[in-house]
Design a protein that fits this description.
With about 130 residues, the chain is α+β, with helices and mostly antiparallel strands. The chain has helices at about 10-20, 25-35, 45-55, 75; strands spanning about 60, 70-75, 80-85, 90-95, 120. It folds into 2 domains: about 10-75, Arc Repressor Mutant, subunit A, CATH 1.10.10; about 80-120, Ferric-uptake regulator, C-terminal dimerisarion domain (Dna Ligase, domain 1).
Length: about 130
């Protein structure tokens, strides 16, 4: 992992947590996971580290309406996919690929450059 900013123990840990999660994580979820290895790590340090990893273009924010951002690896974000938000536990999961055919739905003369879809419901553990 080549980083543009200084590599720290906190940065390596947060990167590892996000990389291994397999789904977008909130800062609170990253903080909870980081406490297992660094019991004194603060929420502020997690936020600073997330910002540094974004500056290094290692992670990207996943924005959901009315929610705080979640974070996933840039590599994962580079492959078009959507997200599922569990109404019960609040976790966000990746929905691989995209089967939407939206070109026929836009007004004549319009050009779609991107789209985002968030599915809402209950995850398998909350059902």
């Amino acid at each position: 992992m080549a980083l543009k900013t200084r590599s720290t123990k906190q940065k390596r840990l947060v990167w590892s947590i996000i990389e291994q999660a397999g789904r977008p994580l909130s800062p609170a979820e990253v903080h909870q996971a980081a406490l297992k290895d660094l019991p004194k790590v603060s929420v502020a340090t997690v936020y600073r580290t997330l910002r540094a990893l974004q500056d290094d273009q290692k992670i990207v924010a996943v924005s959901l309406p009315g929610e705080s951002d979640r974070y996933e690896t840039k590599i994962k974000a580079d492959h078009h996919h959507h997200h599922f938000h569990c109404d019960d536990c609040g976790k966000v999961f990746d929905v691989p690929g995209c089967g939407l055919r939206v070109d026929a739905r836009v007004p004549a003369g319009f050009a779609i450059t991107r789209h985002e879809v968030v599915l809402y419901g209950r995850c398998d553990q909350c059902r």
